[in-house]
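hey
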């Protein structure tokens, strides 16, 4: 091959070898760099930053490799399951949660020029070459369009799409990690679902369509905001959207309990309103993807990992909710769980209705009763342990449980949302709010927020 790409020269074997020493290479170097920077003066700090920057596409692959693909995503998942994981798994996955080094200014300019046909100084009225945020496969820059609109420009690391495709063509390392992390589950359908979503995530054109779908759906909503996309300044590897402003999650933790409850209610309405009514699920519940304002207003960012559901899938979710929450019908729940591959067929004879209730009711605890419920960090941790059988105290049912593809991303955001709610100590009558969102109930507004939504945006979430 005469015109060999930098990715081909590095090779999959080299990247897999890099994974084995992940904590001792990029992670350690970047960690040491961050530590040195704490004690450096401003001029020296800038020099250190410039020294460590990614300067070429080959640099991206050599320094990051798998870390920017499937394994970094696994690390991100671990970061919000951390409370429920046993110590040995926290240590195993901690090395996958490293921050990414930034791109050099020259590499950013080259990437923008290649994608938009001109340098950022021409394509934008203003463009800040210092990133304001790191995305999972790129970084975000603040800019101003020529017509005066403030925007966020997400620039993908050059070559990372090919690196991810190559990494995922051999899923064995990921399967090994998942088998060790989650011994009670069959990891193959789970890994297949994750890899399909990861391949989609490097396609910013697809992300733009997904984000605009949410933006159009929630247009005019008094509490939920989704930045619109500027398609004329977006490509497969560069995404330009409206710039959002507000407070980060860390700030909200210092707000009053009333404000934290309002923020949590909006997160809940967005998550499950989108799933049950829009049939689309924004599958990246990292708190860094939320921007808050007082009064319950939340802007939702990052639509790289979106799962779309057909009506059969939604009907399946609803059948389980109805059996567990509304009817207390464990026989129907068991048969539906088997039909949807949440339970092995052998569970029909070997798992009792009491076992079904004891194990699965935990996941519906906050909506089982028509009363206020406070989500605690302990409940979030217990949910992680229950799903992945870390406690081995599941009354023998764990050996029959499975994670089918439709539930992989659902559980990802369920667990992420619970972790956020636990930190907020979020309190509400979640049952009443859920009944507003469940299509088979279509309940009346149950909170002041629900009443305002119905008045200003409409009832039934667009149904």
């Amino acid at each position: 091959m005469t015109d060999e790409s930098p990715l081909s020269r590095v090779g999959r074997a080299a990247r897999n070898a890099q994974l084995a020493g992940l904590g001792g290479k990029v992670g350690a170097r970047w960690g040491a760099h961050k530590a040195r920077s704490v004690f450096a003066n401003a001029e020296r700090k800038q020099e250190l930053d410039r020294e460590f920057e990614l300067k070429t596409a080959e640099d991206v692959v050599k320094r990051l490799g798998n870390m920017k693909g499937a394994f970094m995503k696994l690390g991100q998942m671990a970061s919000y399951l951390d409370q429920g994981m046993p110590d040995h798994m926290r240590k195993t996955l901690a090395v996958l949660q490293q921050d990414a080094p930034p791109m050099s200014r020259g590499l950013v300019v080259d990437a923008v020029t290649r994608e938009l046909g001109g340098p950022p100084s021409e394509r934008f009225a203003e463009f800040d070459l210092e990133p304001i945020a790191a995305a999972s496969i790129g970084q975000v820059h603040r800019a101003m369009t020529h017509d005066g609109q403030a925007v966020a420009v997400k620039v993908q690391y050059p070559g990372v799409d090919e690196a991810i495709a190559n990494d995922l063509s051999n899923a064995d390392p990921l399967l090994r990690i998942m088998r060790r992390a989650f011994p009670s589950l069959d990891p193959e359908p789970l890994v297949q679902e994750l890899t399909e979503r990861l391949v989609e995530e490097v396609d910013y054109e697809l992300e733009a369509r997904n984000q605009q779908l949410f933006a159009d759906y929630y247009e005019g909503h008094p509490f939920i905001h989704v930045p619109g996309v500027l398609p004329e300044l977006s490509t497969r590897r560069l995404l330009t959207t409206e710039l959002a402003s507000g407070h980060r999650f860390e700030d909200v933790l210092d707000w009053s309990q009333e404000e934290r409850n309002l923020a949590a209610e909006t997160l809940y309405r967005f998550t499950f309103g989108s799933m049950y009514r829009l049939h689309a699920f924004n599958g990246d519940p990292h708190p860094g993807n939320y921007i808050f304002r007082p009064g319950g207003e939340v802007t939702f960012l990052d639509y790289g990992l979106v799962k779309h559901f057909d009506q059969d899938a939604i009907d399946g979710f609803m059948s389980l909710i109805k059996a567990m929450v509304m009817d207390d019908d464990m026989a129907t729940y068991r048969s539906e769980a088997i039909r949807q591959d949440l339970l092995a067929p052998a569970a029909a004879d070997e798992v009792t209705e009491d076992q079904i209730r004891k194990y699965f009711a935990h996941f519906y605890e906050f909506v089982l009763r028509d009363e206020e419920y406070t989500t605690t960090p302990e409940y979030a941790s217990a949910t992680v342990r229950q799903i992945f059988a870390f406690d081995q105290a599941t009354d023998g049912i764990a050996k029959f449980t499975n994670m089918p593809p439709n539930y992989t991303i659902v559980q990802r955001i369920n667990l992420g949302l619970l972790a956020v709610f636990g930190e907020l100590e979020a309190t509400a009558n979640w049952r009443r709010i859920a009944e507003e969102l469940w299509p088979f109930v279509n309940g009346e507004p149950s909170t002041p927020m629900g009443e305002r939504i119905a008045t200003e945006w409409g009832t039934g979430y667009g149904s």
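The mean pLDDT is 79. Residues 1-99+163-201 form one domain.
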